[in-house]
Amino acid sequence: MFNFKYIFYLIVLYSYSFCHAGSYDDFFTAIKHNDTHTVIGLLNRGFDANTLNPAGEHGLLLAIREPSLEVATVLINWPKTKVETRNRQDESPLMLAAINGLTEICQQLISKGADVNKPGWTPLHYAATHGHLAVMNLLLENYAYIDAVSPNGSTPLMMAASYGTPMAVKLLLEAGADPMLRNDLGLSAIDFAQRANRAESAEIISAFVRARQPKEKW
Fold it and tell me: InterPro entries given for it (predicted)?
């Protein structure tokens, strides 16, 4: 004798799985194409904004990286989105927004509780690496630790000195960054600038150090 209740259960389960699989593909395709209409529709129908793709990446991280900024804004403002997710490199959405100079997205993330001072590499390290002054100022205004140390002991000033711009170096120094700190290899910000052939940045740091020390000690 057929168990109609069991058969009905299997049909419902199959239908749900099929629809969910379609929603899954639609969600990540919509992120790639900055399709807010589809993303909003899926979220309103109950799709989990924190679903990971097959590579283990969160939709918000993907939207910022693409960049699909309208979708990123939708996800940031969706109440159930976790803005403190991480990828396999321990990068947060705020870090990716910072390294790409996305000031408005950074502001939105911070307003939703994104960690300005996450352990390890920080958003300020990332913003300083590309010399994004507006993002750097925003992070500092929101109490980013200016001398944060990465896993190898490097500071945002060291990143600015090696990869960023002289203006980024100047901003950090004037905001209170310590140019005398050294990383795990014993390198200072001046060393970073010199090794990268950033003569202007090296001179800015040297001049700042000279100005702080009595002449007889220089």
Answer: Ankyrin_rpt (IPR002110), Ankyrin_rpt-contain_sf (IPR036770)
